[in-house]
Amino acid sequence: MSSDFSAEDLAKLVAGLSPTEKQQVATNLLGESACKLLGMMKFPPGFKLSVVIPVYNETRWIEEVLRRVRAQPIPMEIILIDDFSTDGTREKLPALADGNTKVIFHESNQGKGAALRTGFAHCTGTLILVQDADLEYDPADYPRLLMPILEEKADAVFGSRFVGESHRVLYFWHMIANKILTMLSNMMTNLNLTDMEVCYKVFRSEILQGMRLKSNRFGFEPEVTAKISRASKSWRIYEVPVSYAGRTYAEGKKIGIKDAFSALWCIFYYRFFD
To answer: Which of 58, 120, 167, 271 is the most buried (most CB within 10 A)?
Structure first.
């Protein structure tokens, strides 16, 4: 290499490569073990991640969330589902679509679970990841979420806000409610999760293709957990730490006490009646 070939020249060269080609260059330069420590992944041929983002009244954050998702060096498609936003988000989304980003509109507000069902129906990826449309969760955590599945150790991966990663300090009673709901869910499913209510969940696409989901709101979390746990095939579940920058209600947080009681009802309903 010429001595006048600068780091800037190298950056421009790498920028034109696909995620798979970038991974190969990094592996050749650093070695596989170092790449793993840095969160660099080797993708199998034909791999694609489907990132499903339910959106409701997130005009303040959606462009930045999408920018951060697209910045991840992963072959992916993005499915945005607007759940009948009324704050200008709906009008902003068409301009955000591109060849790798689909935008779907609900004609009435139906809830997060309903938006996710719509998104899952449009997924064509190998793996499916759930991403909220705010800045509480950081897409930089994608490598650690995908790694157990890419290494053939897991079929589904749950993030956890409670196992050692940095997080914004906020509501004490929200934390207690999350821990109680997770404990009750574990009692019904015989799993040992630490954060059943976490947004970040990744699934092999065949898991969701064979699952009939019904919850329209935040009951999606206990429902999908219950149905994975009792599936006829024993899916392998991993849990990994994720960072968390929770919002206040003034900043747009939507989940409330009504959703906590709904989740409680879902834990028992999807264990015994569905």
So the answer is: 58
